[in-house]
Each structure stands twice: as structure tokens, then as C-alpha cells.
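wait is this the right file?? whatever heres the structure
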């Protein structure tokens, strides 16, 4: 982190630690403490929601499991915090792993329902298992001991502050590491993620486990903070609030989590006091009005877009003065405010503030906190010298049948791909070319037949295992990780070069640092190779189409493949882009990589392919040198009809 961005953080930390000296009312200290504890939980929830893109309504239950692990261990065995804290993390992580299982099968609203059911079941179990949890009576826990003496409220507050700072550092390191990139990749394109050797299955489970670990940590601290736990606390309403906090504060933001936690803790309190509510409603109205005026003056928005939210916040301010008592309206106002934020600020308050600042200041801010290193010209885009035994058979497709119901998308197809060559696969639309790619990369398991890569069958292997064994691919419909920058896309392809584990990432140990430096240098070399070095920090979804195709090739190369499958790489490209594509393909071939190239542009096929196979209605109808195939009657017939 740069010293400039470190300074406000340091001031905030000093301010936080000195709070007990200035605020003598323990109620307010307790409120801040609750915000900090919720923030720890939200850091974990943000991994699942913001980074992996899954909906979890099971985090209140995980929070409860953390609290009850501490409570039970203290109540039954009198264990101290230095035992209950790690135990809460471990036990809750195990439950997080269990919660991940449905996430492997279902997504979206179905996952929300399953996690909600997990929450309900957990709450019922805590309630019913009186022999362990004391049931509805709850458990009393004193503040933890510090050198044999119970901690004071201020000392415990400082402990929570320290844990929060550590949690913030660890989460920040996790999400900026290869692990965080894997989480984001599987959110943006699970199929491409698997084909980059990053197992979606594995990283979804890891995300839930880590996320649950933070929930367990927060739950344990909460038990000591409240000094009393009972099953009612950990209900589904709290689960919804946690989810709202992540969305309102802002996904993928440490500051967003703090803000989200503050909102869900303070907003209900704020709505208890009519005078305080009037002040806040008026302040919000003024801030939004000034912001809207600035945005209109700079022409970054239109009157139509600001009209409704502006009318909403001004209406709320006027309404606050019209009210005599707030108690009857609390829930309605709470719901209305949430609706405004969730509907109009879809990237949360922090996300909105960032983009507002960018548009007003006319700046583009690199939000990822990652650098595009200088290009080190000594680093090659290719890392290993390939097996140069040109002419060996690298891939054998043996009588492959791929049936979808009654449709034979591939009907007993044989292929033999020679090492170091470019093998074209052509055919009219719907002839089975992409299906063949999907069979070769493990996305489809063939109904019959075999695929041998370097003499070994790949049938039944997962896509990520096949990718790691040396087969990389691009997709007919570009499958980049859209919310990630160009360099991060390549770094996902370089995931296999990282051997460092979670502890090494959390502590930023030398092996992890070295691996990161090497990967960044290699990623920059790859970007340079495809002419994208100036776009390293640009989000992939913002790149022009031609550059997206080049980026996909560079990402596939990051896997260090022996065999590269390109599915219609020239589709939608302009003539200069196609020329550049041909240059890239030839250069990659010169480095010893074998290609299978699906392409409709015949000039591309004719100019680079050594051999061409033609499919029609799932069957191979011709094979040979490009010129021979072009002159083949069956091929002409397939393309042009009688
Ligand atoms: N998952 C699937 N389920 C059912 N049918 C499928 C599936 N995948 C492909 N098919 C069918 O298999 C046939 C071959 O499709 P495929 O996409 O492999 O053709 P293609 O040669 O790549 O065509 P194009 O050049 O248009 O991409 C088509 O009839 C297609 O509808």
C-alpha cells in the first residue's frame, strides 16, 4: 500500500483505539464494538457474495455456531478465549464446508433458499439441544481473562480492534492473491475458470470455508461482547441484514463492509429518536442534492435519472418534520431507505462514491490495488521449451460418439493430431466442431469412444485436470473474466504456477512474494506478446472485441499448453485484426505448441493449417492438406448443398 493511502488508515486506527478515552458512555463503545464485530463477519460474507457471486442467507447461523462454540466450551469446560477463539473458527469453517455443498449444485434464488433452510435448522438445533446449549435459557459468558483478571470493557474493545485490523489485512491479502482471482474468475465464467485449471468445485468450497471462518471469529467475539447468547439472536432476519449490509456498503470493498455494518447497527437506533432522524434525513437530502447538482453541471447524469432518488430523499426529510412520533413508522422508513440504496446504488455506497468521484473528477482510478509492472524484456511469453518431436501423435480421437437425446452431434469421429502442427477443423454450422472442443476439454463426456492425449485417456477427467495436463482453449463466444482487468485474466491462467498456501499468503511470506513477482512479469510479457501491454489495468469487459479475443489467447498461453484449441478466433474480427491474429498464431506455432483451429474464415484456414478435417452432421467427411480438402466434392457439397 502506498504511504499516501496508508495515512488516512493510520489516522482512523489511532482514532478507533482512542475512542474509550473520549467516549465514557459504555453504551456507545458497545455499539462501535458491535459494528467492528459485524464488519469481521461481513469481510467473510463479502468473499462469498462479492467475489464468488453466490447468495448466502446462512451467515447468521454460522455467526451463531461461532458464538455457541465459544459459549459451550466456556460453559461446560471453562476454557479460555485463546482456546475458544481458534475453536470457533475451526468448527464454523467445517459448517461452512457443509454449507458449500448445495452451492456446488444450485445457484441464485435456489441457493438463497437452501442457505435460509440451513439457518432455520441451525437455530432449531441450538434451541433443542438443551444438554449442550442450555436451549432458550441461553448461556452467560464473562469477559475473557487477561493474565488471570477479567478484561475491562475498554480492553476487550481494543482486542476487537486488533482482531478487526488483522482480519482486514488477511482478507485483503487473500482477495488480491491467486485465491481471490480464482473466486472472481469462477463468478465471471465458471466454464472458463475450469478450463484455466482452476477447479470451480474446489474454490467454491474454499470460499465458503474461509467465509465461515470469519463468521466463526466474529461469533466468538460477539459472545464475549454481549456476555450472553441465546438462539433468538441468530435468526433469519439477521441473515438478511448481513446480506443487505454487504450490498449496501459495497461489494468487494473493505470500507464497504465497515459502512454496511455501521448501517445495520446504527439505522435501527437512529430510527428510535425523531430528532436524530430529522438531522440525518436532512443531511442526506442536502448531500444528495449537492451531488446531483454537481453531476448535472458536469453533464455526467441527466435530470431524469436523478429526479426519483432526489425526490425520495427530499420527501424523507420533509416527512421527518411532519412526523410527531417515529415508533409506528420505524420499519417502513427502514425498508424505504434500504430500497433507495439497493435500487439506485447497485454497487453499494462505496462503489457509487468511487464512480461518482471518477466521473466528477474525470479520473480513471485503478480500483484493484494492483500494479501493471514494467515489462521485463528478459521474460518470455512462453515458459517451457515444448517437446519438439514434430510428427508424433499428440492427440488421438478414437470413434467418439456424442449424443444429446436422439441427436448425434458427433458420430464416430476419428482424429489424429500431430505434434507441432496446426490442425484445422471446419464444417458448416451445427456440424459438431464446438462439441468436439467440449469433448476434448472435459466439458462433455462422450457417449462412446476415447480421447487420448499424449497417450493417456482424458475421458472422465475434469476440465481443470485436462487443462493442467496441457490442453488450453479459447471459446467461440469469448469467455473472459469480465470484471477483472486484462492482467488479472492472464494471472488466472498462471494460477498453476502458484504453490504458496493460505498461511504464506496471509503472512506475505517470501515464496508467495516471489511467485507473485514472477507471475506478474510473465503476465506482462504475455500481454505484450498479444499487443495489450497498454491495457493491463483495463477491465476485460471494456476492451474492444478484437482485443478481447487476443486476451483470451494470451490467457490460454499462460497455462503453458502443449495443445491449444482455438474456437473461431477470427469471428467478428476486422481485416487488420485477422492479420495480427495470423502473426500471433504463427509465432505460437514456432514455439512448438500444437493447434486445433476451428474457423469459418477459409483464408485463415488455408494460410496457416497443415491439415484440415471436415465435419458434417457430426461425421468426418474429409481430411487432408488444405488445398485437397478445398477441392473435395463432398466438402463443396456440404458447404454449398447440391
Ligand atoms: N449441450 C447440448 N445439448 C443439446 N444439443 C447440443 C448441445 N451442444 C450442441 N448441441 C447440438 O449439437 C449440434 C452440433 O453443435 P456444435 O455447436 O458442436 O456445432 P458447430 O459445428 O460448432 O456449429 P457452429 O459453427 O455454428 O458453432 C447442433 O445441432 C447443436 O444444436
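ok assuming it is, sequence goes like this
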Amino acid at each position: 500500500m502506498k504511504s499516501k493511502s496508508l495515512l488516512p488508515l493510520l489516522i482512523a486506527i489511532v482514532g478507533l483505539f482512542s475512542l474509550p478515552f473520549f467516549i465514557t458512555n459504555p453504551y456507545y463503545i458497545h455499539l462501535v464494538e458491535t459494528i467492528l464485530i459485524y464488519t469481521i463477519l461481513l469481510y467473510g460474507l463479502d468473499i462469498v457474495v462479492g467475489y464468488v457471486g453466490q447468495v448466502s442467507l446462512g451467515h447468521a447461523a454460522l455467526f451463531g455456531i461461532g458464538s455457541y462454540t465459544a459459549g459451550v466450551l466456556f460453559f461446560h469446560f471453562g476454557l479460555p478465549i485463546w482456546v475458544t477463539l481458534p475453536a470457533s473458527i475451526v468448527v464454523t469453517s467445517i459448517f461452512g464446508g457443509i454449507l458449500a455443498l448445495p452451492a456446488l449444485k444450485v445457484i441464485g434464488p435456489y441457493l438463497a433458499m437452501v442457505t435460509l433452510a440451513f439457518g432455520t435448522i441451525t437455530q432449531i438445533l441450538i434451541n433443542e439441544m438443551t444438554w449442550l446449549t442450555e436451549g432458550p435459557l441461553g448461556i452467560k459468558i464473562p469477559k475473557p481473562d487477561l493474565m488471570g483478571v477479567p478484561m475491562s470493557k475498554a480492553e476487550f474493545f481494543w482486542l476487537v480492534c486488533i482482531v478487526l485490523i488483522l482480519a482486514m489485512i488477511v482478507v485483503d491479502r487473500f482477495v488480491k492473491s491467486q485465491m481471490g482471482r480464482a473466486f472472481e474468475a469462477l463468478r465471471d465464467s465458471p466454464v472458463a475458470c475450469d478450463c484455466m485449471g482452476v477447479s470451480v468445485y474446489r474454490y467454491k468450497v474454499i470460499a465458503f470455508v474461509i467465509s465461515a471462518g470469519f463468521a466463526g471469529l466474529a461469533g466468538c467475539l460477539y459472545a464475549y461482547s454481549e456476555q450472553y447468547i441465546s438462539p433468538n439472536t441468530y435468526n433469519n432476519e439477521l441473515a438478511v441484514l448481513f446480506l443487505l449490509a454487504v450490498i449496501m456498503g459495497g461489494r468487494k470493498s473493505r470500507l464497504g463492509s465497515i459502512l454496511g455494518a455501521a448501517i445495520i447497527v446504527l439505522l435501527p437506533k437512529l430510527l428510535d429518536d425523531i430528532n436524530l432522524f430529522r438531522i440525518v434525513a436532512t443531511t442526506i437530502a442536502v448531500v444528495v442534492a449537492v451531488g446531483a447538482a454537481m453531476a448535472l453541471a458536469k453533464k455526467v447524469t441527466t435530470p431524469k435519472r436523478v429526479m426519483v432518488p432526489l425526490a425520495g430523499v427530499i420527501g424523507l426529510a420533509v416527512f421527518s418534520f411532519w412526523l410527531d412520533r417515529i415508533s409506528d413508522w420505524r420499519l417502513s422508513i427502514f425498508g424505504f431507505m434500504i430500497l433507495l440504496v439497493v435500487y439506485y446504488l447497485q454497487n453499494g455506497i462505496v462503489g457509487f462514491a468511487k464512480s461518482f468521484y471518477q466521473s466528477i473528477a474525470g479520473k480513471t482510478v485503478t480500483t484493484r490495488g494492483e500494479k501493471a509492472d514494467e515489462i521485463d524484456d528478459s521474460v518470455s511469453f512462453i515458459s517451457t521449451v515444448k517437446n519438439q518431436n514434430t510428427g508424433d501423435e499428440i492427440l488421438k480421437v478414437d470413434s467418439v460418439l456424442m449424443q444429446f437425446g436422439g441427436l448425434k452431434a458427433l458420430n464416430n469421429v476419428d482424429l489424429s493430431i500431430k505434434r507441432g502442427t496446426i490442425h484445422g477443423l471446419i464444417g458448416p454450422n451445427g456440424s459438431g466442431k464446438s462439441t468436439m472442443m467440449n469433448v476434448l476439454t472435459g466439458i462433455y463426456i462422450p457417449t462412446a469412444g476415447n480421447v487420448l492425449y499424449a497417450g493417456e485417456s482424458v475421458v472422465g477427467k475434469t476440465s481443470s485436470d485436462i487443462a493442467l495436463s496441457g490442453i488450453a482453449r479459447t471459446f467461440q463466444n469469448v469467455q473472459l473474466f469480465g470484471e477483472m482487468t486484462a492482467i488479472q485474466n492472464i494471472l488466472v491462467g498462471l494460477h498453476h504456477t502458484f504453490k504458496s498456501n493460505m498461511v504464506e499468503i496471509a503472512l506475505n511470506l517470501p515464496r508467495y512474494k516471489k511467485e507473485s513477482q514472477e507471475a506478474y512479469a510473465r503476465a506482462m510479457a504475455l500481454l505484450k506478446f498479444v499487443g495489450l501491454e497498454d491495457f493491463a489495468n483495463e477491465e476485460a469487459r471494456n476492451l474492444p472485441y478484437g482485443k478481447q479475443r487476443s486476451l483470451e489467447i494470451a490467457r490460454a498461453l499462460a497455462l503453458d499448453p502443449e495443445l491449444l484449441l482455438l474456437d473461431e478466433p477470427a469471428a467478428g474480427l476486422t481485416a487488420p485484426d485477422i492479420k495480427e491474429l495470423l502473426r500471433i498464431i504463427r509465432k505460437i506455432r514456432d514455439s512448438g505448441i500444437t493447434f486445433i483451429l476451428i474457423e469459418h474464415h477459409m483464408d485463415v484456414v488455408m494460410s496457416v493449417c497443415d491439415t484440415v478435417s471436415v465435419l458434417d452432421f457430426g461425421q468426418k467427411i474429409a481430411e487432408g492438406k488444405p488445398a485437397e480438402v478445398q477441392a473435395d466434392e463432398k466438402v463443396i457439397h456440404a458447404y454449398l448443398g447440391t
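The first strand starts at residue 139 and ends at 140. so i think its the right one actually
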